[in-house]
Amino acid sequence: MFKLFFLLSPFILFAQNAQIIYFTDAHQLYELDDIEGGRGGVARLKTVVDNARKENNETLTIHGGDFVGGVLYGGMYKGNHMPNALNQIPIDIFNFGQHEFDYGVDHLITLINQTKGTFFTSNLVDDKGSSFHQLPTYLIKKINNQTILFIGLTDQMQTTKKDSRAQQADLFLSVEKVFKQVKNQLFNQIVVVSQMDLAKNRELVKRFPTINLVLTEEVDEYNSQINYVGKTPIIATAGNMSSVAKINLSSHNLPQIEIIPLDKNTLKDKVLAKLEAQEKNNVEKELKQKLAVLEVDLDAFESLKTESLAGNFVTDAMLDYYKTDLALIDGSGIRKNVEKGDFTYKSARTLLPFGNKMVVVELNGKDFKAFLEQNILSEKPKLIQVAGTKFIINKKSNSIEFPHLENEKKYTLVLNDYNFGKLKNYTKILIGADDEKSIEDYEVLKIYAEKQQIINPKIENRITIIDYE
What we know:
By secondary structure, the chain is of the alpha/beta class.
């Protein structure tokens, strides 16, 4: 039995402590100002890492994923300014979040090539089944005579741009595959860096009890969490690198964990503080441009539940710019509320921070209906905001009625390239995402706002919901 355990599970050695600094979701280079004194920022991160390395000069710094896209800043710069800043920390190991792929595989590869740290993935593969971008499927690091196996996992790839060169293989089978590859090697620690929800992390540790530590994505934007499965901690630091975890790993004891907030109490590295200030000034200057006057509040979260003013405004802008019959956007693509008053370039980018490109297709009415049905009637329903038509959701019968669409009639439809990746059937592409006529969604909104000058969308019963009651 001992021999069998030795072959199937990495054997655990005894040695000195190893130290790790972990953070995740670095969407914005400079601090966010939504709490007193701000939170996050690379200047504070640099201070914490430098202090840790004074304690232990072999400290490993790990980023859990998502430094591309995600928030307003990420949408503006698409991660382009992050490699230079993160190289100055520096970061030793990078796992992927799904947002790394928001602007396409080619863009991500450019950023990887600019970054000094090591990227790896245990479960992202290309169209031939090989590791994405031929990256390592696991890492082995030796720190203070300890040998550590790192496994990197990424979930929710269906929520980013679809590309056959970056596909998500089964999470648990990928871990099994790594263990088979290293079955005759000896490790003091097995550490998983994951972009998965808590339930899947718990299941992971139950299936593979030799795992000593899980470093995962944010569970809460403002608060760090440490959950346990038995004696194995699952650490989720706060979002937008608002905190870091300092972990000491010992073969004799449980991991020692300290959560360090990156807040007003953390001194900023002077060099990176200057870089932060320059970036913030550049962004604010660009975003102040006034486009129009908004006469109503736009509630982004209403777009997830019912027809919304924000949804009508966005889809009307798309319809007006491309002169199509129909327009759509999924409600989750409208990200943040905008209050009435001056509608600025910042307002447009706040509503649509991802910077998705526009696509125009020709399709039959039945194909448009099918797209809405596959999203709205799925196990995890996603409401679709529309312009140019109306529909009725009947929750009693779990069906959708389309009073004004004909199945065999051809329509032109504008949608973003993210939604286009989920469109199964269409007649032809009229404007692709790479076409010179394709512009980013917030630019469409900017042009429409400047044209209208007064923005006052109305609820027009485009979406009617018949509930169970």
